[in-house]
Write a structure and sequence with these properties.
Layout (H helix, E strand, L loop, with lengths): L1 E6 L5 H15 L3 E6 L13 E7 L8 H10 L8 E8 L9 H12 L3 E2 L4 E4 L4 H19 L1
Parallel strand pairs: 1-2, 1-3, 3-4, 4-5, 4-6
Helix pairs in contact: 1-4
Length: 148
Amino acid sequence: MKARIVYASMTGNDEDMADILEEDLQDYGFDVETSDVGFTDASDYLESDLCIFVTYTYGEGAMTDELADFYDELKELDLTGKYFAVMGSGDKTYGEHFCENVFDYEKAFKACGAKEITKPVTIENAPDDAAIDLIDQVAEEMNDQLNG
């Protein structure tokens, strides 16, 4: 089972999340490729069974240029037959905009025909022990559904 994790990280929190998930999935036997959004084409997802996007939400939900460009590329793809998951970090001081980009990407993947394998994972700031446990649980869910 081939998984592609693409992450966008301004502070390192989302890169940490991607690394944790990559290690978990590799432990389950997935062939995982992880890359920074700035060095990745959305079409790279076409080569994978499981498409994962890990993103931050900046301020009041506005996408940075790199996020918007990737988002626009993603919306052009047909990901029918593929599974997806989204996760990311945010700051709860932004209230209703907390992790808004995570949900924007969830909608984009659904519009591309991909099937959601797990609910979006949102954490505040850096992954603490509880967030790491949540990422571990999500990886187990992905494995159970795809390799079960």
